[in-house]
Specification:
It is a single chain. The strands form two sheets. This protein has a four-stranded antiparallel sheet, with no helix packed on it. Strands 5-6-7 form a three-stranded antiparallel sheet, with no helix packed on it. It starts with 8 loop residues before the first strand and ends with a strand. The chain is mainly β.
């Protein structure tokens, strides 16, 4: 399912969180310092993720960018 020029897994710039596309239309955000899921956001048809400098997570597909506040 994950083929092409995108990344279904990203680390936050601070190195304390990571996020991934779960294949069921969700982005799951976890902490690395105290392992545990922080949030789950529905992002139907997302193809990749980028963690922005402002701390916002960006999910994208072929036509849309979705900005996600991860707290």
């Amino acid at each position: 399912q994950w083929a092409g020029d995108f990344d279904p897994f990203v680390w936050a710039g601070d190195g304390e969180r990571f996020a991934f596309l779960d294949g069921d239309g969700h982005v799951r955000v976890w902490t690395a310092t105290a392992p545990g899921e922080v949030s789950v956001v529905e992002v139907e048809d997302a193809k990749g993720l980028v963690w922005g400098a402002s701390g916002r997570l960006i999910a994208w597909d072929s036509r849309t960018l979705r900005f996600i506040d991860t707290g």
